[in-house]
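Technical annex B. To support the medicinal chemistry partners, we prepared a structural model of the target in complex with copper (II) ion, based solely on the information shown next.
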Amino acid sequence: MSSQDRTNSRRRTRTKVLALAATGALLLTGCSEQAQRGWLPNEDRDNTNHTGMLQDLWVNSWIAALAIGLLTWALIIWCIVAYRRRKNDTGYPRQLSYNLPLEIFYTGVPLMLVLTLFFFSDNTQRTVNEHVDSPLVVDVRAKQWAWDFNYSYEGQEKYFAGKQAHLTGESGVEEDLPTLYLPVDVPVEFQLNSRDVIHSFWIPAFLQKLDMFPGRTNYIHLTPQVEGTFQGKCTELCGEYHSEMLFNVEVVSESEFTDYLQTLPDGHLGEEYDKKPAEVARQSTADEGE
Ligand SMILES: [Cu+2]
């Protein structure tokens, strides 16, 4: 064996080992629980009555995309290798044009793929967006930079007013964050409103989010199915303290929820806080300058 051959065979072994390690790593991550969820932020499949369905749509779309991707890459590599230019080849290879069956094939297949994805996405979206008469209505009022929650439940009107992030003095203090309470297994209607600029309501573990526009109400209907503490956030860049526009979500038993409601004042916060947060913000900036 010449030294050149030895170098080549060593190189081949190294490539094989690397390929094996990469495949192994891929397989290992493929088995993890996170991978099975498609790295979605819901730890439980059934956090709400929608999360399972949304997770399936996401994961199955990934599997389909990966399968199609692998097939396409394999075909490309096969063409490159099998039809490469050989040593004795001269001139151009045989040219193909106006091959009707081929053209129908590569128009039809992608069309079918898009239609299939559309069908499943549309199905899921219809189910998720379906209006449900809910015993609990939470009118969420976003403001720069906090949240107010108005609860309408069993004839009671209660509200919680969140401290605005720029007024709390310290940033990111968990106790200062507004908390949204929800009873487990009770359908809830969120009425999403904004008082000032565009915000967006997102509870990552619920896999649903929706924009909040001034002068227009958006709706989310869902049923929390697992008790626990979750995090919520504004997911639309809405100004200086956007990153602190956070809230907690407590999904509790129905009796705990009714007890909690009793601790809240009666009433409903509507548009009356309009523009107030922005004025206060300017004032506090002016104080700092002195
Ligand atoms: Cu916001």
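Notes passed to the chemistry partners:
The radius of gyration is 28 Å.
The pocket of copper (II) ion is lined by residues 142, 199, 234, 236, 238, 242, 245 (CB under 6 Å).
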